Amino acid sequence: MAQVKKYKLGDLEFDTEQEYQQAATDLKRIQSLVAKYDVANPQQAAKILASIRAHPEAFRSPYGRRFVEKLESAALKSGAVSPGQGAYAAGNASANRRNAVRKPAAKEKQPKRKRNKEQPPKRSAAKQNQPNEKKSQNIDGESRFQIFTVRNFTIGFIIIVCVVIFSIFAPQWFSMNGGGDSNSDIRTNLVTAYAKNQAALKEQLYTYYFNVVGETEEEAEKDASEGIGHYVLDLSDRTISTMSESEISDIYSQLCDGGDIQNNSFIEPAEISVLKEKLLAAGLANNSGHGVEGETAVVAAINSMMDYQERIFYSLTYGYSRLNYKEEDCEAFTLEDMASMFGEVIYANSMTEEEKQKYFDSFSKKGLIKDNQIVRFSTDPSAYNLPELTPAVEIALKGDSSKSYQCSMISYAPAASVFYEIHSGKETGTICFRNNGKNSKYIPLDEETSVTAQGDFLMTIGKNDRYEGQWFYNNQEIGILLNGDSSSRISMVHDLTY
User: Fold this and answer.
1) To pair with 417 at 20 to 30 A between CA atoms, which of 135, 214, 252, 342?
2) How sure is the predictor about 197, in pLDDT bands with cuts at 50, 70 and 90?
3) Contact between 268 and 280 (Cβ < 8 Å)
4) How far is CA 99 from CA 78, 91, 255, in A?
């Protein structure tokens, strides 16, 4: 009987590849949200739920559903979500509260008061003889106050005059003090900012898919439009200044109903946050990718390459400095990495246009420049057979008991080396996997089996403890060889208990 293929993600197994892919996608989205927000904070949990309500297709696996349940549990503490409401009903909580009808309390029967048959107490003689109190006698001889007096007429006349003056001058006063429909101005400003932000993001996404990923113009245009599609409305190609007030009001209502605007503040969809993180890691945030006016395409491309190399140089140098190496050693490691990535390291050169043309041709042959634009390295470590460790790992060194750490990637472009920050309480450290594919040493797994080391392993815990060795990766855990001892390992943890 043929063995049924199973798909594994951490400690969980899936029957179909589709389930596996959905869980992997959900896990990446969850990791991104946990890195950006404090999901245990009730207000931030409610904010994420509002985005999920607007985009119910965000999570499709048990991972995602468990995460949403955690968010709902946290949001309940703030009152943003009422008990019994799901993530997709969270946004209706305030409306339900507004529409709730409070029943009047039943009136208690009051006992009938008995009329006091006794004579009322006589007023003092002093009060009876007050000369200024105006009275009139009715036919029964009882006294009563007069309503139509000169004093009352005077007060009424003054009130009428004030009302007339206010009705005449109030409109002019309001117009002089920022009159007009302030709510209309707020709606127009918000919708305009929403559209401008989308237009800038769409251009950056197109540059990312076209230059970094290497897609065709049609593919890049399609993927950029799909990215903007995570918003409630795509206004990136619309001119808000030509719209009528009623059109803007209608758009504003749709954005509020969809959850992109709440309390006159923007709520960014989780998928947009993930896309912006990719742009930031690729060096494309707030950068259209075009050259300076007057530059030739060749000069613009080489200048962009120099800027890109300089960013990677400082990122890698910073990573190695966290491993407590001297400055000259950090630069030596960095230059070795960059030579393996680019072939030529030119970021600090001063070149003529002819020299830039030669480097342009060289980078084009290597595939690092395409269609006059530089092609940036992927930010995904797994694209280079490097391990992706976030959000948590268990590390056992030289056979000791394992210890759990929170783990986050701090690399700018992990093509040659990838850096991770680990921490547990106040204890922090740094891990680096480098020289990938350029190591000839072997790591024994047991008495009969050994594997080729994939690269160098560098790690610090605290300020003084540093470990150097080799590593290999088998998609389940990382084996480490430290001073001939192969019992060290790093296991990836997919624990969604936040």
Assistant:
1) 214
2) confident
3) no
4) 20, 14, 21
Nearest to 453 by CA among 444, 464, 463: 444
Distance CA 68, CA 89 (A): 12
| In contact, 387 and 381? CB cutoff 8 Å | yes
**Which H helix or E strand runs over 423?**
strand 418-424
b (16+ CB within 10 A) / e for 310-337: eebbebbbebbbbbbbeeeebbebbebb
pLDDT digits (tens, 9 = 90+) for 58-85: 777 777 888 888 888 888 876 655 554 5
Q: What is the pLDDT of residue 207?
A: 82
Compute how many other C-beta atoms are within 10 angstroms of the C-beta atom of residue 343. 14
Of residues 231 and 414, more confidence is placed in 231
Give the pair of three-digit tokens for residue 160.
């009428």
Strand ranges (E), 143-262: 143-144, 261-262
pLDDT in tens, 27-45: 777 877 887 778 888 888 8
**Cβ-based burial of 36 (10 A; exposed 0-12, middle 13-18, buried ≥19):** middle
Would you give the distance in Å from CA 466 to the centre of its chain?
Answer: 34
Structure tokens at 350: 């001063």
Contact call for residues 89 and 68 (beta carbons, < 8 A)? no
Decide: residue 26, CB within 10 A, 0-12 exposed, 13-18 middle, 19+ buried. buried
Which alpha helices (H) appear in 259-373, and where do they start and end? 270-281, 297-321, 327-342, 353-366
Q: Which one is predicted more confidently, 19 or 84?
A: 19
CB 393 within 8 A of CB 491: yes
pTM (two decimals): 0.45
What angle is formed at CA 463 by the lines to CA 457 and CA 469, rounded to 5 degrees? 15
**Rounded distance, CA 260 to CA 240, Å?**
17
Give SS3 for 212: helix
Give the chain's largest Cα–Cα span: 127
Q: How many CB atoms lie within 10 A of CB 308?
A: 21
In eight-state DSSP terms, residue 396 is E
Strand, coil or helix: what is 116?
coil
Report the run of H or E that residue 420 belongs to, with start and end: strand 418-424
* Residues 283-328 pLDDT 10s: 565 443 344 444 678 888 898 899 999 989 998 999 999 999 999 9
Identify whether the C-beta of residue 43 lies closer than 8 Å to the C-beta of residue 77.
no
Helix ranges restricted to H, 349-444: 353-366
**Which residues, at least 6 apart from 391, have a Cβ–Cβ distance to it below 8 Å?**
31, 34, 35, 406, 407, 408, 493
Cβ 16 vs Cβ 60: under 8 Å = no
Terminal-residue alpha carbon distance, the chain: 41
